[in-house]
Amino acid sequence: MSETAQMVQPVPATADLADEHGEALQSCDVQLRQYGGVAAFAGPAATIRCFEDNALVKARLAEPGEGRVLVVDGGGSVRTALMGDLIAASAVENGWAGVVIHGGVRDTAVLRTLPLGIKALGSNPRKSAKDGAGERDVPVTFGGATFMPGATVVSDDDGVVVLP
User: Fold this and answer.
1) Is 85 annotated as contributing to ligand binding?
2) 158 annotated ligand-binding residue
3) In terms of residue numbers, what domain contains 47?
């Protein structure tokens, strides 16, 4: 999907989706913060599970995003950042709609200026390891929601949901 087409399509409100789908909708109850320049974003999920190592995140966001949302289960650690300004800029260049990180980010002043949806637990200026430890394209679960590769993820100021 082109960047222009992505901007034209409205993102449904998570509250409206919750009303429409009821208990069939999975809502992530982890209180993630907005860090990106785009508050509402949606797309098919791509997934990564890693812990304090962002090599897989960097590699994945360097691939064509095609309007997808990268969901990263970083184990809830904010001891190191799994994404900063350079990796986020790569995501923008490669057509990703957003990134949801159950972990930390850094370079938050720059992240706010990028046309990318970014949700994360918190921030820390400390770099992560670069060993490539972790898994990609696997189901990841946090905050009571399971993110399956390909499932539709919607995020806005109210939260992050996974469509049934």
Assistant:
1) yes
2) no
3) 25-162
Q: Any known ligand binding at 84?
A: yes
Say if 83 falls within a structural domain: yes
Instruction: Consult the annotation and say whether 107 binds a ligand.
Output: yes
Tokens of 139: 């189901």
Please check whether residue 139 lies inside any domain of the structure. yes
- CATH number (domain holding residue 128): 3.50.30.40
Residue 18 falls inside a structural domain: no
Instruction: Tell me the C-alpha distance between 30 and 26, whole Å.
Output: 12
Buried b / exposed e across 21-48, counting CB within 10 Å, b at 16+?
A: eeeebbbbeeebebbbbbebbbbbbbbb
Give me the number of domains the chain comprises: 1
Q: Would residue 37 count as lying in a domain?
A: yes
The pLDDT of residue 87 is: 98
For residue 98, what pLDDT is reported? 98
What digits encode the pLDDT tens for the residues 70-79?
999 999 999 9
